[in-house]
């Protein structure tokens, strides 16, 4: 497995990753469940590592249970002391009663090794990833409707994807803005022009022609124009989208002055 580029650039200092991984063979995990010790085991681990994420990884669990059940069915005399563990019930309790506790069942050693290697690499590299924002999550084209005729064009342009990521901005509205202002910089240059009033900037885009509109009025409209301006020029990242559209960010900024 190749070392991520981010990791190759740092020193060999130890990095503490708040993650605890337990690997159980199928029989061992079944015994833990049947003895009703699993939940208490989780509680002890969380007391020792209160800030850590805990994961229980099992190997061949379902295959082991099926094999034991088949053996019990074929030869009941030799399997009288075994009962099927309530795996599903216990795992649901892990999900409901505990926070930051996960489980994963691997079908064989190869899948287990692959999962551990991938998990280790991800935990190591995530220390150096850029923090996610709403725009970085949604501006990858995931919000583009499946039937959009401009889907491929939008996916090729970071600016178009950013526009579509703005709530209630349809792809055809984004295309209309992009035709007039092909880059974010070109639009922000106008928005930041001190010679223009806020009113002029809010309605800057309202008369842009939108392709594919079936109504007589094919303009972008005042509502969308105002929304784009207020979202792009918002001063507070903690403000909700609807609040910004209603002017909360603008008015709070001036009231603070």
TrEMBL record:
The record's subcellular location field reads: Nucleus
- Top-level lineage group: Eukaryota
Listed Pfam families: EME1-MUS81_C (PF21292), ERCC4 (PF02732)
Question: What residues does the ERCC4 domain cover?
Answer: 23-118
**Which is one GO molecular function term here?**
endonuclease activity
**Which keywords appear in this protein's UniProt record, sorted alphabetically?**
Calcium, Cell cycle, Cell division, Coiled coil, DNA damage, DNA recombination, DNA repair, Endonuclease, Hydrolase, Magnesium, Meiosis, Metal-binding, Mitosis, Nuclease, Nucleus
Which BP terms does GO give this entry? cell division; DNA recombination; DNA repair; meiotic cell cycle
DNA repair recorded as keyword: yes
Chief subcellular location = nucleus
Give the cofactors, semicolon-separated: Mg(2+); Ca(2+)
| InterPro entries in the record | EME1/EME2_C (IPR042530), ERCC4_domain (IPR006166), Mms4/EME1/EME2 (IPR033310)
Q: Which GO terms describe its cellular component?
A: Holliday junction resolvase complex; nucleus
Q: Which family does it belong to?
A: Belongs to the EME1/MMS4 family.
| Stated role | Interacts with MUS81 to form a DNA structure-specific endonuclease with substrate preference for branched DNA structures with a 5'-end at the branch nick. Typical substrates include 3'-flap structures, D-loops, replication forks, nicked Holliday junctions and also intact Holliday junctions with a reduced efficiency. May be required in mitosis for the processing of stalled or collapsed replication fork intermediates. Plays a role in DNA repair and in genotoxic stress-induced homologous recombination (HR) in somatic cells.
| PANTHER family in the cross-refs | CROSSOVER JUNCTION ENDONUCLEASE MMS4 (PTHR21077:SF5), EME1 PROTEIN (PTHR21077)
- Subunit structure of this entry? Forms a heterodimer with MUS81.
* Name assigned to this protein: Putative ovule protein
């Amino acid at each position: 497995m190749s070392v991520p580029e981010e990791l190759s650039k740092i020193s060999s200092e130890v990095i503490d990753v708040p993650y605890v991984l337990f690997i159980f063979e199928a029989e061992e995990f079944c015994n833990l469940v049947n003895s009703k010790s699993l939940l208490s085991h989780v509680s002890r681990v969380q007391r020792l590592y209160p800030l850590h994420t805990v994961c229980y990884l099992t190997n061949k669990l379902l295959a082991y249970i099926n094999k034991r059940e088949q053996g019990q069915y074929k030869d009941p005399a030799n399997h009288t002391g075994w009962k099927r563990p309530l795996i599903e019930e216990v795992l649901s309790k892990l999900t409901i009663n505990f926070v930051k506790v996960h489980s994963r069942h691997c079908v064989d050693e190869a899948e287990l090794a692959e999962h551990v290697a991938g998990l280790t690499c991800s935990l190591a590299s995530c220390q150096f990833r850029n923090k996610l924002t709403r725009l970085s999550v949604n501006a990858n084209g995931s919000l583009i409707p499946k039937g959009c005729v401009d889907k491929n064009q939008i996916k090729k342009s970071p600016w178009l994807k950013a526009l579509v990521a703005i709530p209630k901005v349809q792809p055809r509205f984004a295309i209309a803005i992009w035709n007039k202002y092909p880059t974010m910089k070109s639009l922000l240059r106008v928005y930041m022009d001190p010679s223009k009033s806020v009113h002029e900037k809010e309605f800057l885009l309202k008369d842009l022609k939108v392709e594919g509109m079936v109504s007589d009025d094919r303009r972008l409209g005042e509502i969308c124009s105002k929304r784009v301006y207020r979202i792009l020029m918002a001063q507070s990242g903690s403000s909700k989208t609807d609040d910004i559209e209603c002017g909360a960010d603008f008015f709070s900024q001036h009231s603070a002055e």
